[in-house]
Amino acid sequence: MNVIKKTLREIANACGGRLSDLQYEGLQVHAVETDTRKLHEGCLFVPFAGEHFDGHDFVGKALEQGAQAAFWPEHREQPEVNGALILVDDPLLALQRLAAYVLRESGVRVVGVTGSNGKTTTKDMIAAVLSAKYKVHKTNGNYNNHIGLPLTILQMEPETEIIVLEMGMSSRGEIELLSSIACPEVAVITNIGDAHLLQLGSREEIARAKVEIISSLREGGLLISNGDEPLIAQVLEEASTVKPKQMAQIRFGFEQANDIYATGVMLNARGTIFTTSVSHQSSYFIPLLGQHNVANALAAMAVAEYFGVPEQEIDKQLRNLVVTGMRTEVVEGVTGLTIINDAYNASPTAVRAALQLFDLMSGFRQKAVVLGDMLELGPEEVNLHRQIGHEFKGIKIDYLYTYGRLAAEIASAASAYLPADHVRAFQDKEELAKALVSVLTPRDLVLVKGSRGMKLEEVVRSLRDTAL
């Protein structure tokens, strides 16, 4: 439920609209909804038109079900309904303006998070460490687009002190829009990867899109960015980059030139132990695997330090971290098989990081990798998949099974480095799982990674639930 407490007059003024009938102006709205299946008494219904439906067709029904009011486009003929309409130029723009108004009026401090990889995990980490000292609200899952971000803002409880907003994109201008709604005090850029090459064409353009997060950073605000990525520094120096006056910067990563960097990393069966250049703590622990998650933790630690969270509390919150699923999540099979479920997304950068992590893990009888297609990579997609296949030249694994047309290119390239019967390409997930189960034992380790659209969590479930 999206929690607000505003009169219809306040809402109309905030979003640049007007009431269809002034007799309703004193009525109060307690929530915002976009789905008639979730309606309840006293909410504001916001209709959207999709490919297969038009929410405007359900405005009358929404009001009948108890909605206090609904947005309605001024350019459309007003329907005959029993209830209040707020006439606006566009319901989506009105929703965004309302969210911006509520956020400004609340005085809540804002942390914005973007990046090609790791932004959801970093958002979860930031919210966790800040919650040691503050009442924190965060983006639910990856509800991070032009609709999800304003709805997240409108979900804030009245006692919220800091909101942590994830900002996603697929093209230029989208992060700029989200930043203009949120006006963050602190902006975090996790990294610049290969995702969205199809839409943007180059990593330089991806960097420019991510750096848009500072376009509405508050004056004197703080940018926390990955200092190991030279493209961020390059874009920050470009004349076309919009940034606030007196912007402070903190750079994190693994290179010693950064303001905060990892000085040591060690994996165990439960997660990752690491040390940093700036902490008095002997070490930190996160219940996640991989060097890339250490980088995410460094970003969260920098945010926590800015907001005055004590080191011992940062350590405690990171140790007890709970993150959104399918991100280097360790799953145990019914007979003891260890599965790393990293099936939420995939890009060349993210897959390389996962393979590097996998290569470091020891103490298992056999190690197998399941990779699916990496989507939205543009004209170079075949070559980028083949490049991943060549990564197996220096990685010690026993089996590589792939799923999907593009992932078959990974298997083809990797066949030069693995025995012929240990590299297989599949177009059916059930067949893949059965074939893999036939060669595994309870003492083995499996990594499963692919783009969200490949739904490789189905393979994870099969491996988890099958007796070996």
Provide an overview of this structure.
The protein has 468 residues and is α/β, with parallel strands linked by helices. It has 3 domains: 88 residues, Udp-n-acetylmuramoylalanyl-d-glutamate--2,6- Diaminopimelate Ligase, Chain: A, domain 1; 213 residues, Mur-like, catalytic domain (UDP-N-acetylmuramoyl-L-alanine:D-glutamate ligase), CATH 3.40.1190; 137 residues, Protein-Tyrosine Phosphatase, Chain A (Alpha-Beta Complex). It is 32% helix and 22% strand. The chain has a 9-stranded mixed beta sheet with strand order 8-9-7-10-11-12-13-14-15, with helices on both faces.
Q: Can you give keywords for this protein?
A:
Protein-Tyrosine Phosphatase, Chain A; single chain; six-stranded mixed sheet; nine-stranded mixed sheet; 468 residues; Udp-n-acetylmuramoylalanyl-d-glutamate--2,6- Diaminopimelate Ligase, Chain: A, domain 1; UDP-N-acetylmuramoyl-L-alanine:D-glutamate ligase
Question: What is the structure about, briefly put?
Answer:
This protein has 16 helices and 21 strands. The chain is an alpha/beta fold and 468 residues long. The strands form three sheets. A nine-stranded mixed beta sheet has the order 8-9-7-10-11-12-13-14-15, sandwiched between helices. A six-stranded mixed beta sheet has the order 1-3-4-5-6-2.
